[in-house]
Amino acid sequence: MSEVIVITSGKGGVGKTTTTANIGTYLSMKGFKTALVDTDIGLRNLDVVMGLENRIVYDLVDVVEGQCRLKQALIKDKRFDGLYLLPAAQTRDKTAVNPEQMRAITEELRQDFDYILIDCPAGIEQGFKNAIAGADRALVVTTPEVSAVRDADRIIGLLEASDVRDHMLIINRIKMDMVKRGDMMNIDDIMDILAIDLLGVIPDDENIVISTNKGEPIVVDEKSLAGQAYRNLTQRLIGEDVPIINLDTNYGLIDRLKSLFKISSSR
Amino acid sequence: MLNDYVKIHGSKDGLVIITSDVSDIDALKEKIINRIERSLTFFKGAQLTVKFRNLGVDEKSLDELKEFVLENYGVNVRFKKIQERHLKNVTSENDIFDGLEEGMTKFYKGTVRSGQIVKYYGNLVVLGDVNPGGIVQASGNIIIMGTLRGIAHAGMSGNLDSIIAASKINAMQLRISNIISRSPDNDIEALYPEIALVKKK
Ligand SMILES: Nc1ncnc2c1ncn2[C@@H]1O[C@H](COP(=O)(O)OP(=O)(O)O)[C@@H](O)[C@H]1O
Ligand SMILES: [Mg+2]
């Protein structure tokens, strides 16, 4: 049985592409046949993060327009068997594809893959609608910033309105030292507003930037905490019972109590 | 006894009398005059809207009554006929909702998220949160069994007596009828249930 999972956020730059690359890579490391689909037409970069940029011959729009078969456009990953990328076109825009065509492509991919991950562009327009068209589930990525959480909330509403009700949250780029100082929204604050299930929390880690630039997802790095966070998160995604990685999350609760006292005494 | 079923309240339509079924023009005339005479100075020069359910009074008699009141009391009357559905206290865009104590109520289950609008021409109960960027609107009261972080607009068609209540109010804006109040810029987090209403002077 295959699953189509869209990785979405509303706001740009919060880590959708990074998340798609890491989850996809780890799924294939665990032996699942996995296809990554970049729907960010005109601003593609999943190929870069995966280090596959120089192998692109055909892309998503070519498939839709019948310039090639789907299988011809799929690029095989250089490290892992069973991992493939369907890149976005760079010279076109989001209107080059419509939701029906996306649904047809995901249906075709289901024949050959266990997991199909759709990397969604930012925004709520056509690109978003294309990305969610064939999805069974959604992973909503946010960072601990008010504006990103606001956009995630908007996206969750739109997902529900489009009948993608199976959705979970990923909080990316959390900095525990900032949370401890009360300078950053903590996990409880975010969960309070968004009120959906938490799939995982990824720490802010500059090694992610380094690995992204090298085209090597951090999940491969055994020693990295961020890599561990992605591994745990992926395991939970496929139904394995692993705890959410401990990033000192207890501080969330303590902080809350402290600020409660602060407020009540100032009234 | 007549006054038992004559309700009066102020709104953006001026003064409003809501009365029940009217089948006889003389009875209606008596009701209106009775009411005006009890507080003449109050009504003088005012715009008065009379709402009723018409059971057979013709337009001509209504026009004559309108003339009569204007001439004798200096009050400008406007008649508004209440539709069948209004009897259940569901109003439309422009009608003032009079079911604050007892009237049609919508129960909305779930979170009202950013970009979503939940609107009802009656009272509205939200069984969930209203998030920043989310909007709830009702022509009557709004009760939120969660945290209000977005915008709530009660009495949207002009009822100043409507209220907004929530388990926690951290709202961006509260609106009752045409009165708007926004949250202070250095917002303190709400800790207990609160009710918002318009202060009577
Ligand atoms: N947990 C993290 N720690 C540090 N940098 C990150 C993290 N997640 C993402 N980034 C960086 O943020 C930038 C945007 O990430 P990206 O995945 O491209 O976002 P999106 O696809 O949502 O636009 C990239 O430069 C990426 O390396
Ligand atoms: Mg991206």
Automatic annotation (TrEMBL), chain A:
Keywords: ATP-binding, Cell cycle, Cell division, Nucleotide-binding, Septation. ATP binds at residues 11-18. One of its GO terms (cellular component) is cytoplasmic side of plasma membrane. Residues 5-218 form the CobQ/CobB/MinD/ParA nucleotide binding domain. InterPro entries: CobQ/CobB/MinD/ParA_Nub-bd_dom, MinD, MinD_FleN, P-loop_NTPase, ParA/MinD_ATPase. One of its GO terms (biological process) is division septum assembly. One of its GO terms (molecular function) is ATP hydrolysis activity. The keyword Transmembrane does not apply. Gene3D superfamilies: P-loop containing nucleotide triphosphate hydrolases. Belongs to the ParA family. MinD subfamily. NCBIfam families: minD_bact. PANTHER family: SEPTUM SITE-DETERMINING PROTEIN MIND HOMOLOG, CHLOROPLASTIC (PTHR43384:SF6), SEPTUM SITE-DETERMINING PROTEIN MIND HOMOLOG, CHLOROPLASTIC-RELATED (PTHR43384). ATPase required for the correct placement of the division site. Cell division inhibitors MinC and MinD act in concert to form an inhibitor capable of blocking formation of the polar Z ring septums. Rapidly oscillates between the poles of the cell to destabilize FtsZ filaments that have formed before they mature into polar Z rings. This is Septum site-determining protein MinD. It comes from Thermoanaerobacterium aotearoense SCUT27. The lineage of its organism: Bacteria, Bacillati, Bacillota, Clostridia, Thermoanaerobacterales.
